[in-house]
Amino acid sequence: MNVHGIHILLYAAAALCALSGVCVFFKSRKPAYALLCAGVLAHTAYQAGRGWLSGVFIPNGMFEGVFLLPLAVALLALAHQSYGERRPDWDSVTYLAIAFMAFALYYPHGIIPPTPQKISIWAAFFFLFEVPAHACFFAGGWLALRALMKLEGGNDFHPLLVWGFVFYSLAQFTGAVWCYQGWSVPFSWGARHLNSAAIWFTYAAYLHLRFLKGWDMRRKAWFAVAASLIVLCLSFASYLHEMNFERIGG
Fold it and tell me: Cα–chain-centroid distance for residue 153?
C-alpha cells in the first residue's frame, strides 16, 4: 500500500467504530463488541502505518495524540467488555471514542517533520503514557457525568482517575528525561509544560479529597467532570495550535 493510502485504514476504523456505536445505542451488544474489535484492529494497523508517512520509518507519527487517543479510549471500552461486568455505562464509552475519532478525521493526517531532539525513544515513552492517561481521564469524566445524570450509578469513574494519574505521573517522568536529553533541562516554563503540570496537580488534588470532610462520591463525580473538561481544553488547545504546522505524508 502507498504510504499516503494508509489513511484509508483510519476511515475504515472510524466507520467500524461508528457502527459499533449504533449497535450500542440499540443495545445490540454482541455486534457492538465485534465491530469495536474490528475497528481497534484497523486503527492499530493505521497507527503502525503512520510510522512510514515520511517515506522512511519515524516512530513519532505512531504516537501523535490526536490519532492515538480514540484508539486508547476504544481499548478501554473493549477491555472492560472483555474482562469486566457488561454494563451499559461502559458500553457508552464507545461514544467517546467516536467523538475523538471524528476530530482525528478532521485533523491534518500527515506528521510534523521531527527535529533531532524529537527523535528519541523517550518521546515515544512519553506519549505512550500521556495518551492513555488522557483516555482514562476522559472516560472517568464521562462515567461520572452519567452517574450524576442517574443514567447509571456507581463509582466506576474513580479507578479510572487513579490509573490515569499513575500513567500521567509516568509521562511526567519520561517527559522530563526526554526534555533533559534534548534541551538540557527537565522542565521549562513553556505552555506545554505548564499545561502538563496543571493537569497533574488537578488529579493530585482529586486523590487528596478523601482527607476532606463532606466530599462524598457525588461531589467527587462533579470534580471528575470538571477535571476532564480542564484536560479537554488544555490538550485540544495544543492540538488546534499544531494544525497550522507544515506536515508531510497527508
Answer: 24
Per-residue pLDDT tens over the stretch 99-142: 999 999 999 999 988 887 778 889 999 999 999 999 999 999 99
Three cell numbers written together for 231: 484536560
Distance CA 169, CA 187 (A): 14
Phi-psi domain of 150 (left: phi exceeds 0; alpha: psi -120 through 50; beta: other): left
Residues with Cβ < 8 Å from 207, sequence gap 6 or more?
A: 161, 162, 165
The single residue listed with the C-alpha cell 477491555 is 79
Tell me the C-alpha distance between 184 and 247, whole Å: 27
Helix 191-207 × helix 121-148 angle, to 10°: 50
Helix (H) or strand (E) segment spanning residue 182: helix 157-183
148 CB contacts (<8 Å, ≥6 apart)? 218, 221, 222, 225
Q: How far apart are CA 250 and CA 233, in angstroms?
A: 26
Give the number of C-alpha atoms closer than 13 A to the C-alpha of residue 51, restricted to the C-beta side.
12
Residue-wise pLDDT for 164-195, tens only, equals: 999 999 999 999 999 988 888 888 888 888 99
* DSSP state letter for 184: S
